[in-house]
Amino acid sequence: MFRFSESIEEFHQTARDARGLDDFGEDDYREALEMLCLSLDEDTTLTPIGETAIQAMITDALQARLMVEAGWKQFPEAEDARIDRPLVIVGLPRTGTTALHHLIGQDPAIQALEHWIQRTPKPRPPRADWEEDPDYLASVERVHMMFSRSPDMRAIHEIEAHLPDECWNTFSQNFVHSSYEANADVRQYAQWWIQSDMTPVYRRHRRTAQLVGHREPEKRWLFKDATHLFDLAALFETYPDAMIVQTHRDPVQAIPSVCSLCWSARDALNEGMDMARFGRSTLALWEHSIFAMMKTREGRDPKQFFDLPFDRFVSDPPAAIDEIYAYFGLDFTPAANRSIREFRAENPKGKHGAHAYRADQWGLTASEIAERFRPYTEAYGIETASATS
Questions:
Q1: How far apart are the C-alpha atoms of 155 and 145, rounded to whole Å?
Q2: What is the mean pLDDT of the segment spanning 121-131?
Q3: What pLDDT is recorded for position 347?
Q4: Which secondary-structure segment (H or E) carries 87?
Q5: Cβ contacts of residue 196 below 8 Å, gap of 6+?
Q6: Residue-level pLDDT at 148
Q7: Which of 36, 51, 132, 154 has its CA 20 to 30 A from that of 309?
Q8: Whether the Cβ atoms of residue 262 and residue 182 lie closer than 8 Å to each other
Q9: Segment 289-319, tens digit of pLDDT
Q10: Do 236 and 300 form a contact (C-beta atoms < 8 A)?
Q11: Which domains does the chain have, with CATH numbers?
Q12: What CA–CA distance (Å, rounded) separates 326 from 320?
C-alpha cells in the first residue's frame, strides 16, 4: 500500500532527477506538504490512477519550486520587476471568473500566468517560440490526458496550456490551495489550510510572477483564483494596491455547479465516495471563504473593489470589461476590445458541451444554501432562486 507520508523525500528526489536541480528554496512549504500527505494517507480512498495523479501533482509542484529558485539565480534582474496595481479576479467558483479571466487576458497590454508557464516557471518566451518549447509541448499533452481521464470536465471548466489559468499551480509550490480538496477527500488538510496564514504563499506567488514577466514590465498583471477569497489580507500584504474584481452569482446556482465540477475530478481519482457528504463539505468550504472575504473587505478602501454581478457579465462581457476598466481608470483600447471580441467569437459558450447539475444530487436544497449564504447575498444585493420560488 502506497504511503504518501513515507514518500516525501522520494517526491523531492524525483523532482531533482527530472530537472537536474537541487535547491527548493525556503522550507516554508514543508508543513503544508506533510499535512497534505498525512491526510492523503488517512482520509482518502484513491484509485491506482488517483494515487499516480496526486503523486504527479506533488512532484510537479516541487519541480516548479526548483525552477523558480534556479530562475532567480540565472536572472537576478527579476527582483527589480515591479508589479503595480495588478488586476485580481476573485469570486466563488462558477461565477464567471474563468471566462472573465480569459477575456481580459486577451488585452495586449495585459500579462497573466498561463497554464503552462505556471507548471514550468521561467521568463516567458516570445509567443512564436512556444510550439518548439519542450515544457509547453509537455503541458499541452498533460491537458489532453487530463480531459481524456475526465471528459465531462471540459464542458464545465476550460483549460488550455496557452491560456491564462488560475493561480493554483503557483500556490501549489507551497501546497496551499483548494484544488487538493477538489481532487481528494483530504479532510484534515482542508481544516488545516483554511486556518493557515497565506502570506508565504503570496510571497512565492510574487516571486514567480516577477520571474515570468520581468521581460515585459510595461504590461499590467492579471491574476485570478477563487482561493484568494480565503485570505485577502495576505493578498493585500503582498499587493497593497491590487484592484479587485469580485464576481457575484446566486449561491443557490453556484454551489451545485461547484459540486459538479469537483466531482468530475474526484470521480476519476477516488472510489467509494458519498455524494451527500461531499456536497456538505463543499458547501462548508466555500461558505467559509465568503465570510473570510467579507471580514477583510470591511477594513479596506471600497475603491479597491469592483463588484460584478454574474447576469451583467454574461449579458454583455465586453461592456462589463469596459466598465471595469473605467472604474479603475484603465484604458480599454480598440486593440483590447477587438482581441476580446475575436476570442469570444472563437470560443462561444457551450463550445465543449452543456453543463447540467442539481442541488439534490449532493444532498443539498436551495433553501439551505440560501440560508447559509444569506448575510452575503443581503450585503451584496444578490437575489436567490429560493427567494423567488
A1: 15
A2: 97
A3: 85
A4: strand 87-90
A5: 32, 176
A6: 78
A7: 154
A8: yes
A9: 999 999 999 999 999 999 999 999 999 999 9
A10: yes
A11: 5-388 (3.40.50.300)
A12: 10
